[in-house]
Input
Amino acid sequence: MIPSLLSSPSRRGRPRETELTPAQEKRFLQLVMLGNKDHKSGSASMAFRVLCQEFPDIAWDWKSLASKHQIPACAKELARKANGLVAFHRQGERGLRAAGAYAPGGLRTDGMGTRRAYGGERASWDDATVNFGVVIPWPWGGCKLSEKHGVKLGRFQLLLVHDEATSYVPAWSHVIRESQAYRGTDVAEAVMRVARDVCLFESLVLEGGVWQGRRMQRVMEGMGTKLISAKGRPQSKMVENYFNRLWTRLGMEPGLASVGRFRGEEKATSDFYVKCRAGLADPRGKFPMLEEAVQGLENSVRFGNADRIESRKYGQWIPEERWTTDMEAHPRPLMDASKLWLASPIM
Output
């Protein structure tokens, strides 16, 4: 039995704190979730009043308080944690994302929240459409643009790996295909090249689609790497935020004519891009050649690796320096190159 919170009937002021047993905490969370007052939260005060009815040994005399909505701090903390569950209960994964279930700095921990993660432990991969047109020499024809001007034009795809602990980017791939898309083979090859040449990460944070397709499942199993799914949860991988910084730096590279990071931006350039794709204009001189694009990407990635990260939780560091220090103190193995057959285009 928990002692009474009121030392005497005449006690006034803020009630003393109370504690809940594990069973009471579990039931309180259930009540908050089932109450679903709105699309992202439940009624914590009503849930606690119901809890007090079900567990009379909880000595919280809410009737003597100025407001029935007053609940102990331990219940308030539980209710805040339950908000994500309420959204998930009502709207599934979409609701969970909308509720903003987020722990500041959590993605830089070891996964258990007991320490800062070390470089090489966890990385996130993602794709991004390069935000400027790239000109590829193409003397073989096959489309109006190449038949007339001997080149092809596209924005193509950037596949990039981001170390979550240090924000260091050890590698990236620029995938150039006619469809301007990428395939499961491209993803598998990029991931395994990093495992062979840089380090074998303990776990990878990957979105859905081909990143978690059958080929990648075989690759992950063959490498012995743990998969952390970010399917439907883009906020769970830090590479998303990194791309914002990368695009900003890319825009400062000479000769990289941006198509625009947002819809409707630089409309004249975008219209000219479409005109070139249709073979009605020569893109050379307006859009960078492949060599220029690759050099611009390389310069921007190198800049990010040497640019200081400032974190309210973990302080300040240079990504490349922290990566090097962590890898020296906690070295990671390389993948055996004999496993590369797992990324083969044809099995």
User: Anything to note?
Assistant: Residues 73-98 form the longest helix (26 residues).
